[in-house]
Amino acid sequence: MRLFLRDHLDIILFYAFNALFLSYVYHRMDGFQTTDGIFYFLFLSFFLLMLLLLLRYVRKRRLYRMLSRDPATLEDMMDLEAADAETNAFLRYNRKCYEAYERKLNTWQAENGRWQTHLMQWVHQMKTPVSVIRLMVQDDTKQLDSFGVLYELDRLQSQMDLMLGLARAGQAKNDLVIEQLSLDALLRDVIRKNKRLFIQHQVFPQMEPGEDGLIRSDRKWLAFVIEQLLHNAVKYSPSHSTIELSIKKDGMYTKLTVRDHGVGIRARDLPRVFELYYTGSNGRESDQSSGIGLYLVKTILDSLGHGVELKSKINEGTEVSILF
């Protein structure tokens, strides 16, 4: 009812002003001889006003009731009918807009679903030959350069994990197992897994003394995030340099910091480094960046409820911190 009154406030005010103005003018011209005549005129005017408002409310009450409540679904207004042609024309227009929106949404969802399905099938299919080749190399180290092959397999595995992470990033919240973790132990596991990466590039991690870092998080997704940060640090660091890793208390937070001494990131690129497919100046110059890694880092950490900070200076290095 309040929405109806607000919608007709201009009519009510105009009608009231008109009745009072006419009664005053008519009285000044000696049209009303008694006070009862003035009140009768005003009563009749307001009676007609209320009759008009009642008629309009009855014709549009279903529309006003619908607009006064929060819809549970978009389909709530689809079956609504009113008594006046104007309201029905408005509702038909809204239905057509909704139908056009639904068609586009269904098309997008179908295409996105097919893309995710194909991508995930491809990644899973690739995992099998990678595992087989790895076993063959480990069993026949005399005829092959096992280190080189295993390093290339690690690269292939890393890229598949990256694409699989991109496909699953939107549903990460549905795949979380939150538990208490030792950040120090998890970090050492990730370093051990990527030891061939460090040896190949001659860039080595250094663990600084600090906290053990007992936190609550998802082991699999957090390991994926740390691995992406280490890969980025190695990728843009010169040979025979180090990556410094530290776990420290920072107020109410536990902070894991990954610091390299590489090329750094230009100031103009810093605001956009977490955007999907944004490679920045370094990526375009070296053709090494996919623009996916840091996007996934930010997306996954947001799902886990952890913060992320990034600082960098050109030719001095980059520092990325995760806040737990």
Automatic annotation (TrEMBL):
Record key words, sorted: Cell membrane, Kinase, Membrane, Transferase, Transmembrane, Transmembrane helix, Two-component regulatory system
A molecular function GO annotation: phosphorelay sensor kinase activity
Keyword Phosphoprotein: no
Catalysed reactions, as listed in the record: ATP + protein L-histidine = ADP + protein N-phospho-L-histidine
E.C. no: 2.7.13.3
Location in the cell: Cell membrane
Protein's name in the database: histidine kinase
Natural source organism: Porcincola intestinalis
